[in-house]
Fold NADPH-dependent FMN reductase-like domain-containing protein.
Amino acid sequence: NTKKVAVIVGSLRKESFNRKVAKEMIRLAPEGLELQIVEIKDLTFFSEDIENSPPQTWTDYKNQIQNSDAVLFVSPEYNRTIPGVLKNAMEIGGRPPKENSWKGKPGAVVTVSPGAIGGMGSNQTIRVAAANLHISMMTQPEAFIGTIKDKLQEDGVTVDEKTAKFLVTFLEAFKSWIEKF
Ligand code: FNR
């Protein structure tokens, strides 16, 4: 039976490298793993004042997470930590506590950057927030994809062979991780 993975991209940029990598992961996913991007761009800012009567966009978003078997974060690093839009989406998904949509799900994170260290700080801080949200994150392999501009093919969309191979290895490990739950 196919496992459904909700993919959350931590950048709203049209030409986002992270979105490109997320799309490549959708393409490269092994048999039995179905990845789908859950959009976060229409979510308003989280406030406790409205969490008990949330807007429809929040509810639709939470349902998409709830209906998935697992969650994959693909995100840039902003100032060595989680981009605000992603953090906001993590908060909305987890509130109120009795309706935490993330609860008990297996998860994984990939960070992508034009810089050399591949968003390592963001990768780590996403794990910190995920732990508190009761997401069981895969520990290995880690995926910090740095110098992404050099890893895209001339089409500007697909990744080079070595990166594709790594993503396949990562996705296979994630599939095994999900199957443990
Ligand atoms: C960045 N960028 C960045 N890169 C990085 O490796 N470490 C960092 O701490 C930061 N900080 C940072 C802060 C802010 C506010 C911006 C806008 C950018 C650069 C970032 O990696 C680059 O813009 C990526 O292209 C963003 O990812 P997407 O949009 O291409 O997916």
Observations:
- Residues 11, 13, 16-18, 76-80, 113-115, 119 surround FNR (CB under 6 Å).
- Residues 3-179 form a domain with the Rossmann fold fold (CATH 3.40.50.360).
